[in-house]
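Query structure, 82 tokens:
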């Protein structure tokens, strides 16, 4: 189990090198495999991923717990709420 910002992460999805819309499509698919309350960390490099994941989380009702940029690497931590 990995940790991100003090939160235990149940699954890590690596979408580095993938362009829009693949990181969001893969995130949606991965979330379906998680139980309610489980945490997914998504790694991405597409600059459009930040606005996309924020909009997706709001639209789907899942909780975007943390978002960080480290150079070109983007990390989103999402809890399955629905």
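Result returned for the query:
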């Amino acid at each position: 189990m990995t940790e991100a910002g003090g939160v235990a992460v149940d699954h890590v999805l690596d979408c580095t090198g993938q362009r829009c819309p693949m990181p969001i499509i893969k995130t949606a698919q991965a979330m379906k495999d998680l139980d309610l309350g489980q945490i997914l960390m998504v790694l991405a490099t597409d600059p459009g991923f930040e606005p996309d994941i924020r909009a997706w989380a709001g639209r789907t009702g899942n909780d975007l717990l943390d978002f960080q940029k480290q150079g070109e690497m983007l990390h989103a931590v999402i809890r399955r709420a629905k």
